[in-house]
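Assemble and predict.
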Amino acid sequence: MGLAVAYQLARDGHVPVLFEADDRVGGMTATFDFDGLDIERYYHFHCISDHAFLQVLDELKLGSKMQWVETKMGYWFQNRLQPWGNPLALLGFKGLGLVAKFRYGLHAFLCTKRNDWKPLDHVEATGWIRRWVGEEAYEVLWRRLFDYKFYHYSSNLSAAWIWSRIRRIGRSRYSLFREKLGFLEGGSATLLQAMRNDIAAHGGEIRLSTSVNRVVMAEGKVRGVETAAGFEAFDKAISTVPLPFIPRIMPDLPADVLQKFQQIKNIAVVCVIAKLKKPVTENFWLNTNDEEMDIPGLVEYSNLRPLDQHIVYVPFYMPWEHAKYAEPDEVFLGKVKRYLKKINPELQDDDFIAMRASRYRHAQPICDPGYLEQLPPAALPVQGLWVADTSYYYPEDRGISESIGYGRALAQKAVA
Ligand SMILES: Cc1cc2nc3c(=O)[nH]c(=O)nc-3n(C[C@H](O)[C@H](O)[C@H](O)COP(=O)(O)OP(=O)(O)OC[C@H]3O[C@@H](n4cnc5c(N)ncnc54)[C@H](O)[C@@H]3O)c2cc1C
């Protein structure tokens, strides 16, 4: 989002300076050297509805690097790998009654047809799903997805927010029977590099490994920022860091505004990436419902983007304050080995070429009913100061496209 803000400002003739705490741009989309392969720390796929993302690609002449693929989904349930993600797969699914299947399918279908999220804004998500699909389908197909992503927050999430996630995937299809997901040749790095170059070409500046420690404000106006190098004057500041950081870097905000930021909660992720000699399955996305696995699913990325080896991401989402988050990486790597070998018993220890775990403490805001109303407006009551993160495009889920679209619009408002 920060890159999108700077990109828009620079193209509009302003002189943005982007401060990035990390040693690379991209935040959650950033890549790393995984045993010789430059790849995202967290998996990324694109949907046909990702308009803001596709528009930037066009502007940067990267449209031809976008590839669309017919992907498959699976469900690991009752020690069996089953096809998933289309009406035929639902009908043939073993372990669920016919009425439950019908109710589940109807709910998913109607979610893709709905456009108005307002009636769902103040509705609690698990109750909403239960009323539609019934207890049986909820237990088999939904409960673990909530439990292993949101833990004790599961019982108070916004139905509008969950609906938008169902709709995004549900609408990215060739037809009712064929799913269509996209990847960028070279991964997110292709876009990140092009945005960096574009910002520089239009006179903007990016400072890596430069954390903003404080946004300085006085007499109701922004004065500048403080970094390890000292104070630097600016007449406008647009923050796109995760909202829970705001009280720390903007302690001079009015108390009622600070209090709102203090209430925001985020889910953390420990995301394991594995490089394998053999595929685990033929699916891109595999949902899991297994007593022995504390994950909602896994992503076999190389079944979307062809790579020389098989790449699987296994995300362990959890509230950062959960005891599990303090466990060392080895615990998560060990679990992933066990889970993948259970799903595909042909996998042997020496099929695992490399494994790594990446952590992001603010991987996703926890959006409870009426979430947007709890946030201070992005234009803060300090002249020249704007704040946003992925929360601000609720009920849309965090996503590259949404962050780009929101960031660009924010940049235009901030200088209007
Ligand atoms: C496991 C996982 C899977 C995902 N899958 C997808 C997907 O398939 N498709 C999709 O579209 N999206 C996906 N996303 C989401 C996507 O990555 C995010 O929506 C997007 O990166 C959000 O970008 P952002 O700039 O809003 O926030 P962030 O990426 O969180 O960026 C915030 C930036 O602020 C920097 N920062 C923090 N504090 C400071 C400070 N004091 N000073 C300076 N800089 C600071 C951070 O270093 C970071 O670079 C996924 C995310 C995760 C974690």
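Residues 97-165 form one domain.
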